[in-house]
């Protein structure tokens, strides 16, 4: 019997069915793990860098690094709370300027309210009271002993080293003189200047240093002369001369000292010396030539004849 087409066992072509399937990947998983890994590696690098610094530096160097990143740190012993921006002083006539003693007419401050510090009122009154008591003290023997350069140098060093913002700058403060006068020189360094280049605007370090020294000066008898000095850098036409610049820097120092509690009536003079008295004459452009010199002068019997505070 013949096979019927289409039936099983037939020789007719059979349909071939091909099943195709596309390979599917797992999809994009994101790159957040890369960010987390990078953060982890950065933290580890910073950690090992800090460990290396701790192992490779001395205690004094570590304190200096800490104060560099925190120049306005608080200190309970000095009224250095915080400092506000300092404005540039007004222009001043060329030449040396001298501010006379208490009998001379008062001239306005070059900085006026430019240098502003938030000093607690109680601390400010305490500094002023201590300065007044020192000038009126009848114990001349103690005053003579404390007013000698070695004793003053120790007191200045202690005052500067006590403040976190200034203890790294103690090497820039030099004390010298004789029994009749004491000179405190605050010099620039290559790493830490006291003023902006070519300007009479003191930076935060200069303000902190002068505020730390002001109570020491206030507790010593005598009148104060402030001198400003520059290096021998030539000045350009139309800009401040070294005479004007040094005088304005001296007056800026005066303004800070007075605001820190030093009696204004004890000021004898504020003078700009330009580059006429270089500390390092072999290198006229050396940073040490740029300085502020505070000279405390006490003549025989001067402590008992000082005017009373006004």
Q: Secondary-structure map with pairings?
A:
Layout: H1 32-56, H2 59-69, H3 121-136, H4 140-146, H5 149-162, E1 173-177, E2 181-187, H6 204-218, E3 223-229, H7 242-259, E4 267-272, E5 291-297
Parallel strand pairs: 3-4
Antiparallel strand pairs: 1-2, 2-5, 3-5
> How many β-strands, per DSSP?
5
Strand percent estimate:
5-15%
**For the CA atoms, what is the radius of gyration?**
36 Å
- Going across the biggest sheet, name each strand in turn: 1-2-5-3-4
CATH architecture of the largest domain: 2-Layer Sandwich
Q: What do the pLDDT scores average to? A: 71
CATH topology of the largest domain: 60s Ribosomal Protein L30, Chain: A
Q: What structural class should be given to the helix and strand makeup?
A: alpha+beta
Q: Any low-confidence stretches, pLDDT <50, length ≥5?
A: 73-145, 303-310
Distance between the termini: 144 Å
Helix content: 25-40%
Q: In the CATH hierarchy, what is the superfamily of the largest domain?
A: OmpA-like domain
Region (Disordered): 1-29
Biased composition (Basic and acidic residues): 19-28
Keywords: Cell membrane, Membrane, Transmembrane, Transmembrane helix
GO cellular component, one term: plasma membrane
């Amino acid at each position: 019997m013949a096979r019927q087409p289409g039936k099983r066992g037939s020789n007719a072509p059979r349909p071939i069915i091909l099943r195709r399937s596309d390979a599917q990947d797992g999809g994009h998983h994101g790159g957040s793990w890369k960010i987390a890994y990078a953060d982890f590696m950065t933290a580890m690098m910073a950690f090992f860098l800090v460990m290396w610094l701790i192992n490779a530096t001395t205690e004094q160097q570590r304190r200096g690094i800490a104060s560099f990143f925190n120049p306005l740190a608080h200190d309970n012993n000095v009224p250095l709370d915080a400092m506000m921006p300092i404005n540039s002083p007004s222009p001043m006539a060329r030449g040396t300027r001298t501010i006379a003693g208490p009998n001379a007419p008062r001239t306005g401050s070059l900085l006026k309210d430019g240098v502003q510090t938030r000093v607690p009122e109680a601390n400010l009154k305490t500094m002023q009271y201590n300065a007044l008591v020192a000038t009126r003290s009848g114990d001349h023997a103690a005053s003579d002993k404390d007013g000698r350069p070695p004793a003053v140098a120790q007191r200045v060093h202690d005052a500067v080293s006590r403040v976190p913002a200034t203890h790294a700058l103690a090497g820039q403060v030099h004390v010298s003189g004789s029994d009749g006068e004491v000179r405190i020189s605050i010099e620039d360094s290559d790493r830490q200047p006291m003023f902006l280049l070519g300007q009479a605007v003191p930076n935060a370090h200069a303000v902190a240093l002068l505020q730390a020294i002001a109570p020491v000066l206030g507790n010593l008898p005598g009148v104060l002369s402030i001198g400003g000095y520059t290096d021998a850098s030539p000045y350009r036409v139309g800009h401040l001369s070294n005479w004007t610049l040094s005088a304005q820097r001296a007056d800026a120092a005066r303004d800070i000292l007075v605001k820190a509690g030093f009696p204004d009536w004890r000021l004898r003079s504020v003078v700009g010396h330009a580059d006429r008295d270089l500390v390092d004459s072999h290198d006229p452009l050396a940073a040490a030539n740029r300085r502020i010199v505070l000279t405390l002068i006490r003549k025989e019997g001067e402590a008992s004849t000082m005017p009373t505070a006004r």
